[in-house]
Amino acid sequence: MKKISYPLVLTSILLASFLVFMSLAGCTKTATTTAATTTTTTTTTVQPIKTYTVGLLAELTGFLGSYNTATVNEAQIAVDMVNENGGVIVGGQNYNLKLVVEDGQSTLDGTTAAANKLIFNDNVKIIIGPDAYFNSAVSGLCEQNKILHIAGYCTMQPGEMDATTTYTFLGQAASINYFTGALAYLKANYPNVKTVALAMPDDGSIPYFGAAVQKMVQAAGYTVAGSIIGYNNSAVDFSPYAAKIIATGADAVICCSGIALPNGSILKDVRDAGSNMLFVICNSTIPTDNIKVAGTTESTNVVDCSAAYIGCPNPSAILTEMIQRYQLLVGNSNAPLVTLEYANPIWELGQVLNQANSFDPAVLKNTFSNMTSIQTLYGPGTISGLKTFGINQAVSYQLPITTITNGVPTFQTWEPALVP
Amino acid sequence: MPEATILLIIASIVNALVLSSMYILLALGFTFLFNIMGILNFAHGAIYMIGAYICFFLATAVGMNQWLAMLIAVAAVGLFGIFMERFAFRPFFGNINQIIVVCIGIITVLENGVSVSQGFIVQVTPPFVQGIFRVGIVSISWERVVIFLIGISLLILVLLFINKTKQGLQMRAVAQDLEGAVLQGINVHFVSALACVIACALAALAGSLMGSYLSLTPYMGQDIMIKVLEILVLGGIGSINGVLFAGLIVGTLDAVLPIMVSGTATQAIMMLIIIIILLFKPQGLFGKEVRG
User: Rounded distance, CA A119 to CA B89, Å?
Assistant: First the structure.
């Protein structure tokens, strides 16, 4: 038998260590800043008299894993902010909120299991989340068990939110909000656009969300070029979709939802194929992320209705604080990510609890649905959605509109993105 | 024929060639390992991902030229192949169950390590080349042209290496008859390590290029790995010619199907086409009887 070659073993171990070091290179920064945040919290938080546990259903693993890890960090910041302002007062008693987080694994089955765990193991009466199109695994369960459910997103698929899901609220701008904002800006500022192509992820929402946006586009006086172009979120290459968009011959394409990877990739591929058509992006991804994926030279003639980002003028004071705390957490004074899918619902929950003066989900539900306005992290919010969802339980607020030319984003306006 | 249709056809051909070249590069590395060591390295996609991240890290955090960053990433991941061969594969040689568990372990460590350390930040390696190549009404980014040329060049080099060099012939000998190769004095461990190095280096190179062309995610290896498995099964596991031919088929289907059908249906239709082909050729297009 051949003897072990120790130099070879040593070299291999060193190389392995190098690879581990490379892949964990970002860890130091995060660990340090997390510790810093903990210290800040310890020194400024008033000790709670009592604690109230709220369930947070996030997709911590799977395709949404990285994204939701960040949004859970934001949620914790929102909880800290609520608690530092005295927590919530119910029955004359101050309560600090505490999150218990379960992982939906970016699948409907996993999300159902996580929701069951929150309800039956953790015994929570309030669930925040989930993200994306996973509400259909949660809303019915919350209705059956009378659990207050404040969703972080909605793609308008059956079972997510409708007249039968009375315990479900949408606490954060969703695809329909971003689309509403972008369409209003397009109509007001681009009179030469007559035909539009529509693109969106083929995640099951095209017959519902797609049908809704198609109607809205036609109602706004545009002609929809071809049918809706549904793309595969997991596609290795998005250039076939870009080719399909260009072939419609439309004046503009609207990417109605989705995240930076597909939208930025399609933008890049449309430009690389020689087309300079107006490119409209409406989603919760900030413009700089789309630019990163698409590239500087390709990011031109773009209108983006997005989440708030650094550079949006006159953000609300709470949003400014949220951004600063997030930057402190990630240890980057320029960190742009503020999507707030879970933070906004938590911030709103604090107000609902105070106003309801109860933890009973039925009371909370009635209080929330009877409110006409609420303070969101983006500023004043309106509660609407009867025409869109069949139930008046969606929170809308202003969203930033940005144009991008040669990779440079320029803020244009805060667009009211009220969901009818 | 309308100009839009001509553009669509040309775009599809270009996309098919670029995608096929990347798929073939990856699948070739995977096939290498299977042929030499009889190992189905399911961690190949994770290796592709780590190659992309190393290139990105060197090009952005260190500020290195991206071509140099890519070369270092390829070298580092290639050498990591030695580690894999020695500690992940050799001890479990011949035991498929243990190899699968080891691969799952490698995937978990690499993907979660990157996921935890990088979080959700959109990351793209700076472009290797910029600009658009125009011929008449057709526009193609130089990046795609370069990716295709690199893919094809490497493919030719790898095939020349296998067929024309002493080490390549040794690899073929080991693949054909392990005991015979040992009796002929071929250092099987060296050949296996070399196969691992080449496989990992090819994966890292493909990852580095695609990290610039698309963007980086900790799970980017999973989707591409499905493509690799489709190519292997379709081409016939272990067949180099099969990889070339099936890579071209899968790349073409990936480029053309999204134009004809909506989003996620493309994957289902592609699998259906593969199943139909396998019904007529169960061993794959160029497959042989599986060795016992």
Answer: 44
Contacts of A112 (CB under 8 A, 6+ apart): A137, A138, A141
* Angstrom distance (rounded) from CA A137 to CA A143: 11
Name the nearest CA neighbour of A99 among A117, A120, A78, A69: A78
Distance from CA of B211 to the nearest CA of A (A): 10
Q: What is d(CA A367, CA A355) in angstroms, rounded to the nearest whole number?
A: 7
**In chain B, positions 81-110, which contact chain A (CB-CB < 8 Å)?**
82-83, 86-87, 110
Q: Which of residues 184-213 of B touch A (CB under 8 A)?
A: 189, 210
Lowest mean pLDDT among A3-7, A219-223, A267-271, A305-309: A3-7
Q: Give one DSSP letter per residue of B187-216, joined into a string.
A: -HHHHHHHHHHHHHHHHHHHHHHHHHHS-B
Measured in degrees and rounded to the nearest 5, phi and psi for residue A168 equal: -100, 130
3-state secondary structure of B23: helix
Contact in structure between B230 and B243 (CB atoms under 8 Å): no
Q: What pTM did the predictor assign?
A: 0.82
DSSP A117: I
Distance of alpha carbon B71 from alpha carbon A225, whole angstroms: 45
Is B129 buried (19+), middle (13-18) or exposed (0-12) by CB count in 10 A? middle
d(C-alpha A229, C-alpha A148), whole Å: 36
ipTM: 0.82
Q: Given a cut of 60, is residue A311 above it in pLDDT?
A: yes
Element (H, E) at A55: strand A50-58
Distance CA B8, CA B5 (A): 5
* 8 A C-beta contact, residue A224 and residue A211: no
The C-alpha atoms of residue A143 and residue A162 are separated, in whole angstroms, by 11
Q: Which of B87, B122, B189 to mutate to test the interface with A (most CBs of A within 10 A)?
A: B122
Pair A381, A374: CB distance under 8 Å: yes
Please answer yes or no on whether A293 and B110 come within 8 Å at the CB atom: no
pLDDT digits (tens, 9 = 90+) for B12-23: 888 899 889 889
